[in-house]
Specification:
- The protein has 350 residues and is of the alpha/beta class.
- It has a domain of 233 residues.
- Helices cover 45% and strands 13% of the residues.
- It has eleven helices and eight strands.
- The termini are far apart.
């Protein structure tokens, strides 16, 4: 009996030590991440005259053809929203790009990543944008992967609405290996049905809503930036993933709709409750990768009075249950582990 107790205690100590190691690694790859952390990947490959250098003209021609095709989708799906707004965002991060067309900007970002891969300094195997408590990244670290988790809630330097934050987010992309996981948990508050009476999002305004309301405008900017990151992820051969509540209209709005259509992303429905979530929380997971179908789940049975995030009043309006809403904003560790396992099943990492 004493030997058994000693063995159990030893295993428990080993598990606790491993958990502490993962926690420290998570801090290092999330809250402590700055541009300095990825400094090896920051420079753009240019010659002495400042001209972008890339020897593979065939790859450049193929990239330009893809960007041209995307611009056609953008014109059709969102009235050219990406072409109007992305250059403005990118110029805040890289003022020296002022006067460039979008094609040249995207080309420079892609060539930088290609150069980093050729030099062997692009080492990231996952990137979790808008990571919150970063349980998806924790699950990746448990499996031995190297990456970064970015969110302004962890570090003000991660604020993608600021020039330095956007540079950091794009730098993370420039540090990624082919096949790396690029996951976006776009903040959904202004896109869900709970806020529809205030956001005024509707099909008549392409789900862009009342942009005189700051939270609506901010939501649209974050969606535009998420669209930019998703397009870059696909152009750079990363494995894309976008998560939203099932009743969010973000995937139907603006440049995000154009990108999802262009890259051939598919909608997969699942339920956070099936992965240990505190509420039912139906989710839509978007990806062009077949492995994302492994995350699909049938709707589980729960009593209506339990795990309900919001209730509809007699006037049709919704009232949220604050405690459950806050708790449901974060992924469970089981959800993170299933995402990583599904991605692993595709043997994504080269």
């Amino acid at each position: 009996m004493e030997a058994d107790a000693s063995s159990v205690a030893s295993r428990m100590n080993a598990l606790l030590q491993r958990e502490q190691q993962v926690t420290q690694q998570l801090k290092a790859c999330s809250a402590y991440v700055t541009a300095h952390s990825l400094a090896d990947c920051e420079p753009f490959p240019v010659d002495e005259h400042g001209a972008l250098q890339c020897q593979d003209m065939g790859a450049i021609a193929e990239l330009h053809a893809k960007i041209d095709r995307f611009c056609q989708y953008d014109d059709h799906c969102s009235g050219g929203r990406a072409q109007m707004l992305w250059p403005k965002y990118l110029c805040t991060a890289f003022p020296w790009m002022q006067g460039w067309c979008l094609k040249d900007m995207l080309t420079a970002l892609c060539v930088r990543t290609w150069s980093n891969r050729e030099r062997g300094v692009a080492r990231l195997q996952f990137i979790e944008y808008f990571c919150g408590t970063a349980n998806l990244s924790r699950a990746a670290i448990e499996k031995g992967y190297v990456g970064v988790a970015l969110d302004y809630l962890l570090n003000s330097d991660h604020d993608v609405l600021q020039a330095a934050g956007l540079r950091l987010w794009l730098l993370a992309m420039a540090s990624a290996k082919p096949g790396a996981l690029c996951w976006l948990g776009l903040p959904c508050s202004s896109f869900v049905i709970l806020c529809r009476s205030v956001s005024l999002r509707s099909i008549d305004n392409s789900w862009l809503g009342n942009e005189s309301a700051r939270f609506v405008l901010e939501g649209n900017v974050l969606a535009d930036l998420s669209a930019l990151l998703l397009l870059l992820a696909v152009l750079l051969d990363l494995h894309d993933g976008l998560e939203q509540p099932l009743n969010s209209v973000a995937p139907e709005s603006g440049s995000l709709a154009a990108v999802l259509q262009f890259i051939g992303s598919q909608k997969n429905v699942t339920y956070h409750f099936c992965f240990g979530g505190p509420t039912l929380k139906p989710l839509q997971l978007w990806s062009r990768q077949p492995w994302m179908t492994l995350m699909q789940r049938n709707k589980p049975y729960v009593r209506k009075s339990e795990f309900q995030l919001a209730e509809r009043g007699e006037d049709g309006s919704f009232t949220g249950v604050k405690e459950l809403l806050v708790e449901s904003q974060q992924y469970s560790i089981q959800f993170g582990r299933h995402v990583i396992q599904s991605w692993q099943a595709a043997q994504a990492i080269h």
